[in-house]
Model the fold of this input.
Amino acid sequence: MEAEVAEENQDGRRVRGDRTKRAILAKAVDLASVDGLEGLSIGGLASELGVSKSGLFAHFGSKLELQLETVQAASELFEEQVWQPVADAEPGVVQLVALMESWLRYFRDPGNSGGCFFSNAYHEFDARPGPVRDAIAAQKRRWMAAIVHHAQVAADRGQLKAGTDPEQLAFELDAVGSLANSLWQLEGDEKAFGRAQTAIRTRLHAGATASGRRALAGAGLSC
Amino acid sequence: MEAEVAEENQDGRRVRGDRTKRAILAKAVDLASVDGLEGLSIGGLASELGVSKSGLFAHFGSKLELQLETVQAASELFEEQVWQPVADAEPGVVQLVALMESWLRYFRDPGNSGGCFFSNAYHEFDARPGPVRDAIAAQKRRWMAAIVHHAQVAADRGQLKAGTDPEQLAFELDAVGSLANSLWQLEGDEKAFGRAQTAIRTRLHAGATASGRRALAGAGLSC
DNA sequence: CTGAAGAACGAACGGTCGTGCTTTTTCTTT
DNA sequence: AAAGAAAAAGCACGACCGTTCGTTCTTCAG
Done:
C-alpha cells in the first residue's frame, strides 16, 4: 500500500461528494425512523432524493455501510438536538432533569416525525447479531452512561440521598422517557409526555436531599 | 349469494387445514419477533416449516392477512403465558405485582428468544398507518387497560393511597417492564430484570397504604 | 366406489432488492 | 482553456419478494 494524499482540503469547506453524503444521510435517518434500517432501501432513498441509485450506492459500497453511517449520522443529530441544548446547565440534578426534558422535546420535534430513530433501531436489531446491532447497542450504552454520570455528579454534590443507586435511577428515567416516545408514536397520545415528566420529577424529588430540592426549585423544576 | 353450510365440525376436533395454520402461525410469531412483521417473508416461513410457499400462501391470501393473523396468534400466546398464570391471584396490589412479574418471566422465557413480539411490533409499525398498526395499537391499549384496571381495583380496596392516579401508575410500571425487555434483548443484561423488579416494588410500596403493604408482605412481595 | 371439495404443490409472473460494470457529466487544478 | 480526478448516471445481473395459476394428493360424504 502506498501513502495516499488527504482527500479533503484544509479549510472548512467540504468537497462536493461530502455535501451530497450529508444530504443522503439526513434523509436516510428520516426514512429509517419510519421504515426501519432494514426497510430502508437504496433505490427508495435515491428516488426520494432525486438521484440515481448507482450514484448514491457509490458513496457507501454496501448496504451495511450505509446502515452503519446512518446510525452514526443519527447519533450526531441526537447529540445536537438533545445533548447540546443542556450542555451549559448547572451540573447535578438540574442538568439531569434538563437532559430528560430535552429528550422529551426531541421526541415531539416535527422534524423527527417518525419518532426517535434509536428507539426504533433498538427493537429492530435487538435480536439480530452483527455490526449494526453492535453500533446501536454502543449508542444505547453511551446514552445510559450519560444519565448515570449526571446522577453520579448529583450524588457527589450531595443532591441525592445517600444510598441512591445511580444506575437504578437512570434505568427508571430512561424507561419513562422511552415509553412516552412509544405512546406518542403509536397513539399520538400527548398525555404520555405529561406522565413522563411527572414520573421524572416525582422520582427525582423523592430521591433528592434538601439541597437537591433547592437546586431543582431554583431552576423552576419543582413538582 | 346462497347460504353456506358451516365448514367446521361440531366437536372440538379441527380439520387438517386448521392444524396446519396453527403451526404456521406459531412459527410466524417466532420469526417475526426476530425479523419483524415486515421482515417476515412467506418463502422463508414456508421453508422453515418444510412446506411449499404457495401452499402456505393459500391459507392467507395476502401478506397483510398473514400479518394480521400473526398479531392475533401472538396475542393469544401472550394471554396464555402472561395473564393466565396470575388469573387466580388475590385481586388488588397482589395481582398487579404478580402480573408484572409474570410479564418479566415471559420476557426471559427461552421459547421467546426473539424477545417480546409486541415490543418489536410496536416500534416497527408505530409510524406506519394501516390495519397492522391498528391491530397492534389495540393490543397495547388492552395491555395498558389491564394494568390500569388492577390498579383501580387496588385503589377501590383501599390498598393505594388516596389521590393515586391509576393511569400514571400503569404508565410507570409498563415503562420499567418494557425497558427490561429491551436491555435483555440488546445486551443480554440479566440485571435489567432486577432493576425492573426493584422499581415495581418500590413504586408500589411507596404508593400503598398500610393495608396494601400488608397484602404485599402477606404474598411474600415486600421490598 | 365415486366424485366433489379442500389442502398442498411446482412453476412462473412482474417487480424490487442489493450490487457490479461502463460511460458521461461536473468540478478542480494547472 | 485543457487535463485530470471525482461524482453521478446508465445499464444489467442474479436473487428474492408477494402473488397467481394449474395440477396433484388427501379426505370424506353420498
Notes: The two ends of chain B are 64 Å apart (CA to CA). The first helix of chain B runs from residue 16 to 39.
